[in-house]
């Protein structure tokens, strides 16, 4: 793995049991992703992009092959080690935001830092910085149900970025947003990608997102059919 | 982190308030039900001991054999000496003589002619003698409706119900006709000094109470008594201790051929009380057991539902980097907290209701007006040591086990499956 290479995917296979049969979601996928990339796994529903994203995020195990993330082999990771990897190095952004509804915006963004056992002062500084990035400094005490869809997703971005992860995985982040909010969110992520050199990997079939990508990895029926790097 | 989780717990009523209400309710019901059954059991033992069986009872073998006929011809003699010896040998017990009798109570008019007559069941107890606790045992102070406790020979207490039925007032003379221990007719005049109501149907229907010296004289039982009752000085019936004393005493007087030799019985040996207590114990145990299991299932289900409801939250926390074991532990801590809070509130409320039932009870006079069992007309609960913790079995344990079961799903499921459940 080279210095700039952050993810190395080799001969990755993923099967799901369906009764007595197996469904192969990923067929022998090979891919390498470098630090600071702003790339997307694109393709229609059922193409395997979310499955691949889940395995990259150590949320799922491969059936065959392996993924090496920052020198960690996903297939060899124990639960605790996988949690540690996600905790320290990976941020997630979900399609449905998935903010914890009983906590305020500040507390939602603070949560990953609590897991990292950061001091109160460090947490306060980091949360306020992350909320500034997404332009929600005035919403610290709001609850998720008081936010619009766009605002909720910006909180989710702040939560993913607050610990300064090396990789952010975003699964259909704009699926529930209108064009203006999608543009806003993507601009924010692009800015963070450029300023912090964070690697962004999207799973999407949304044209609004695809337009922003600097690399598009096209998937179809679990196979990589195209890998285009834009200039 | 703990502060963070507690904040979430308090704010999410589905996770805190509702489970606490269910736990509180379950704990409350368990505490009250257990205490109520306990109260009935204790009341049964206490009433029987005070009015009839004592914790231990001494009589002759012949008297025991025919005890339902109250055969005073087989009464114990030399009672004073016998009690002295019992006091010396078993100092943990108070020993007191009693004579039961049946007879006819005659109320004369101003000409001395019979105005009213009624069969009565009588008890002669040591009311006037020194250091007697019989008045306290019969709870006479509180049971007196009119008049006063016998203060001198010739005074008699009769039940309020009987007094009304026979139109007797305080100060009236009455004549008791009975059979002496020699089989002769016994007649004695008494003055009604008071009326009583014990709240025990069988006593209230037609009982009279006199001092024992009066009946020893009337029934020609000088220094005699039908029975000598032993009461544990700590006021509680302790079966093992009573059994030990019985065994020791009966071994000493092992003369089965002599029908006048004394025989000691425990409370449980008399009136089928042993079987009855066992039966109540078993039934009580089954009722409380079924209830405990039912409440445990309800609370276990609450724990399960609470865990399942939070799969989404668990998925987010896993994705953000929290370890499965850490999440599982936090769910268990939460359920312990909810279990403790609910159980404490439920136990406090349960004890408050139990205390009310202990002090005031439920009046069932009408339902048992024809009953011949010595039992209180008021059903009462009783707070015991167990009342303080029995509610915690369903309240705390079941909640914890329910959460533990639902939490195991976190380990069984693929992380990605939990993660997918977010996408709803």
Structure, described:
The complex is a heterodimer of chains A (231) and B (424). Chain A is α/β, with parallel strands linked by helices. Chain A contains seven helices and ten strands. In chain A, the strands form two sheets. Chain A has a six-stranded mixed β-sheet, sandwiched between helices. In chain A, strand 7, helix 6 and strand 8 form a beta-alpha-beta unit. Chain B has 424 residues and is an alpha+beta fold. Chain B is elongated. Chains A and B meet through helix 2 and helix 3 of A and helix 1, helix 12, helix 13 and helix 15 of B.
Average pLDDT figure of chain B: 85
> From N to C, what is the helix and strand string of chain A?
EEEHEEHEHHHEHEHEE
Topology, number of strands of chain B: 14
Number of strands of chain A: 10
Distance between the termini of chain B: 28 Å
Q: What percentage of residues of chain B falls in helices of 4 or more residues?
A: 40-55%
Helix-strand layout with pairing:
The complex is a heterodimer of chains A (231) and B (424).
Chain A: E1 5-18, E2 21-34, E3 38-42, H1 49-56, E4 64-69, E5 72-73, H2 79-89, E6 90-93, H3 105-115, H4 120-133, H5 149-161, E7 167-171, H6 179-196, E8 199-204, H7 207-210, E9 215-220, E10 223-229
Parallel strand pairs in A: 3-8, 3-9, 6-7, 7-8
Antiparallel strand pairs in A: 1-2, 1-4, 4-5, 9-10
Helix pairs in contact in A: 3-4, 3-5, 4-5, 5-6
Chain B: H1 2-11, H2 17-53, E1 56-60, H3 61-65, E2 76-77, H4 79-89, E3 93-108, E4 114-125, H5 134-137, H6 140-143, E5 144-147, E6 155-159, H7 160-166, E7 173-179, E8 185-196, H8 201-204, E9 207-211, H9 212-218, E10 224-225, E11 227-232, H10 239-252, E12 262-266, H11 273-309, H12 311-319, H13 324-359, E13 362-363, E14 378-379, H14 392-412, H15 415-420
Parallel strand pairs in B: 4-9, 6-8
Antiparallel strand pairs in B: 1-11, 1-12, 2-10, 3-4, 3-7, 3-11, 5-8, 6-9, 7-8, 13-14
Helix pairs in contact in B: 2-11, 2-13, 2-14, 11-14, 13-14
